[in-house]
Amino acid sequence: MGYSKRTNNRGFDELRKIEAKTGVIKNADGSAYFKIGNTAAYAAVYGPRNLYPKFLQNPSTGILRCNYNMMPFSGTGERVRPGPSRRSKEISLVTEKALLPVVDLKEFPNAVVDVFIELIETDAGSRCAGICAASMALADAGITMKDLVVAVSVGKVDDKVAVDLDYDEEAYEDGPVSDIPLAIIPSTGEFTLLQMDGEISKDDLIKALSLSKKVVPKLYEIQKKALSEKYKLYGSDTNGNEE
Amino acid sequence: MGKLIIQDKTIVVPGETLAEGMDYLPGAGTYRLGDKILAEKVGLINIDGRALKLIPLSGRYAPKRNDVIICKVIDVTFSGWRFETNSAYSAMLSVKDATSDYIARGADLTSYFDIGDYVVAKITNVTSQKLVDLTTKGLGLKRLRGGRMIKVNSQKVPRIIGKQGSMVTMIKKATNCNIVVGQNGLIWLSGEPKDEVTAVSAIRMIEANSHIKGLTDKVKEYLGFTGEVGEPEHKEYEHSQNVDNQNVDNN
Question: By residue range, what is the domain housing residue B194?
Answer without folding.
Answer: 148-245
